[in-house]
Design brief:
- It is built from 19 helices and 11 strands.
- It is an alpha/beta fold and 472 residues long.
- Strands 7-6-5-8-9-11-10 form a 7-stranded mixed β-sheet. It has a 4-stranded antiparallel β-sheet with strand order 2-3-1-4, with helices on one face.
- α5 packs antiparallel against α6.
- The longest helix has 19 residues.
- The radius of gyration is 24 Å and the shape is globular.
- The N terminus and C terminus are likely disordered.
Amino acid sequence: MEETAGVTKGKKDLRETALDILLKYEKSGEKLNSVIQDVFLTGDYPDKKDRAFIKILSEGTVERRITLDYVIDRFSNVETGRMKPLIRIVLRMGTYQLLFMDAVPPHAVCSESVRLVKKRHMSGLSGFVNAVLRRIAGEGFDIESIKEPHIKYSCPEWIFKKLEDDYGEEKAVDIIRSFAEPQSVYIRTNLTRIKPDELEKRLREKGLEPSKVRNRPYAFSISGFGDLSSLAEFREGLFSVQDISSMSIGDEIREIIYKDRPESFRILDLCAAPGGKSCHSAEILKVYMDEVKKGAFSVLSRDISEKKRLLIEDNKERLGLELIKTGVFDASGADIPDEDRESYDLVIADLPCSGLGVTGRKNDLKYRVQPEDIPVLKKLQRDMLKNADCSLKSGGYLIFSVCTVTREETAEQDSWIRGNLGYRRVKERQILPGEGEGDGFYYAVYIKNGTIYCHSERSEESFMTAWKDPSG
């Protein structure tokens, strides 16, 4: 492959593919990852280097959009907001390569950008594109010289201001800085099928370099490998891909099980897809069952659509977890089945949220989420928590979690759970992005005192708005 030019002889132009991805992304409003995957599924890109080049360029151009527009506006006599969409995207792609892709020579960036513009029948603007990029390449630009943190780290200003209000300026800067840093990939050993040391050995034999995670003997971080789902070990159900922050829920359930030593235990996972927490829970229960040799244990794993249910089923089957039963259910709805009322020993309420804790992993999330989403999501979460309360036995455990960091969706919800539902909190933890390993994440563990509060109404408009929320 002619890597500097981004063109593979006899194959599609890689930069042109990235351009098509970004044009479709802006026009369709789809998630960037979905657009990229569609292109890879329908196109001829067998070479891993080709796919990596396209992915890095597409994702990086979107992730650093605010910084790129700031730099382009410094060197252009036309603001990016007034440019034709194709020209704006070509300039963003070119600027991203100049500032963040050191292996690509500046002359190749300029010439290939001009070629793209001409190929798309906009030759009249090729000189403008060439001039802007050559100025940036010639004069250079130091990103560290940008004083405004939200521009420097490409974070929408409203998100930075919210984080600043909640945590102070220094912590807010640390958080948005972490959004722009490379994110680690973590896997969780399926202890019902293999021991961690054996899995590590097999992965090393495949050329991977798994690193053990402190305080989690079943978990590893993986670097330098693209598609983990292509491994035989994944297909055989020997591990799951899950962030270590999210693994905390399973750790809490393990602690509860081995503290209480129950002879039977029923878990309900309200919003389960794709099933990471349900599967982790089922693995813990299966290991415990094999130890005690008795009892009835189960996990009911639900989500709002058949599509989401099938995602859970796929993981359940791959991992061999017969304890899991799946179902389709609106966790915010008013109609709770009679058989659900006071039926579960533990309810996992990992609820829809703004997703700001995983912004570093979802490149375009920060541009999809809007300030008005948060109060809608806050109400939706409370509707779901009321249903969780209806389903939970007196003395049972509620685990509430969200992959975000806003006070409205974390500390305020905790106060509401204790004040309105009357639960006793036994543990609370806020993990901020950039604090050690893992994504930003919040969870709290509660014990139900006995009062049951079942709600009977919800706003259909509020519900539908929330389920179009950017966190997915």
